[in-house]
Amino acid sequence: MNAPATLAQVRPDDSPVRAEDLVSLDLIRKLVGFDTTSRDSNLALIDWVGAYFREHGIASTLTYDDDGRKANLFATLPARDGNATTGGIVLSGHTDVVPVDGQPWDTNPFDVTRKGDRLIGRGVADMKSFLAVGLAFVPEFVRRGLRKPIHFAFSYDEETGCIGVRRLIADVAAKGISPTGCIVGEPTGMQLVVAHKGKKAWRCRVRGFEAHSSLTPHGVNAVQIACEIVAWIARRARELRDAGRKDDAYDVPFTTVHVGTIHGGTALNIVPRDCAFDFEIRHLPFDDPDAFFADVKAYAESFLPAMHAVAPGTRIEFDPLSTLPGFDTHEGSEITALGCACSGTHEFGKVSFGTEASLFHNAHLPTVICGPGHIAQAHQPNEWVSLDQIARCESFMRRLADQVCAT
Ligand SMILES: [Zn+2]
Q1: Prediction pTM value
Q2: CA-CA distances (angstroms) from residue 87 to 65, 110, 165, 193, 306?
Q3: pLDDT in tens, 326-367
Q4: Ligand 1 centre from 68 Cα, in Å?
Q5: How far is the CA of 371 from the centre of ligand 1 (A)?
Q6: Sign of the four-CA dihedral 344, 349, 149, 136
Q7: What count of other Cβ atoms lies within 10 Å of the Cβ of residue 221?
Q8: What are the residues facing 77 on neighbouring strands?
Q9: What pairing do the DSSP bridges indicate for beta strands 193-196 and 211-212?
Q10: Distance of CA 290 from the midpoint of ligand 1 (Å)
């Protein structure tokens, strides 16, 4: 709604960015102004974005969560010949942000503050600036006309496990829409990213048998058994680091496993009955998370005969917590070539953090990631993005317009 009709030109050099040359700042302020913390509704933001598209003559569809409190938005800018389904690309991002609870913010996180060459606010890096820059270019896409459609995909509940976008992808497939590629604007410092690791997480629950701590042979110590399994996982982590397959394009070039929480026991003078811990694997696309899990489970089960010999009701159980596949888009693919053309470089990287990109990729939609800001600033108090990153993103979008527009 606030996007100017004419867009500034690409900066010719590395001169400092002037805020007045940027076309997306008002839209960034607007989107950050909606508190879309994942636990809350995102509908106010979605309604506003829907109205923005309507103002430019573009219809959008929503897919809701079970309670109707949150929605994905999917909007299509058809090609000049009316084609709205075949080919073209998706610009994708999530609308939710992580909580600010307990974080020492110096400013109101939902009111963008500019300090020098930085914008500060929740979501300025992860990832409302990318959404805003995309929206800022809608008038230009419409004015110049498109050779192939451009789709906008705004999801809910990414931060809680990439939940919302799964419905959006299913809905898009059901409508017979078949884009040739997708750009996810997670913060990569505007570096083109063509792959990320997969992730899988579980909870292990050990049920032992309580006894007075002076009678340890009559009990089954759940904490100690859990710790044996934790130690086994730590050993596997070292093996993966030292002898696992590597891909040096990643910041962490090998598959990692780790234990993040552990809870067990009630008092020192009681042999503990219960202990539970959560663990995860972040794996390179060619490593199998299920094989790792099978090994953990087999090791855990080796304790059962001794446990049952003391108390038959003892057990070790596993709950799956989350799964996000990895992805690796082919270097020669059309979307990689387009991403290179838009970022003005032939270099691309791979990252260890998970995104919605892998879900698009697994739905047969080749995907790259490229967005303003850095993952190190995401989820932090005083989250920030530099004006330079916004300028780079606007340059990216401007080159995209040159690639996809008819005039
Ligand atoms: Zn994100």
Answers
A1: 0.83
A2: 28, 37, 20, 21, 60
A3: 889 988 899 999 999 999 888 889 988 888 899 999 899 999
A4: 22
A5: 10
A6: negative
A7: 24
A8: 150
A9: unpaired
A10: 26
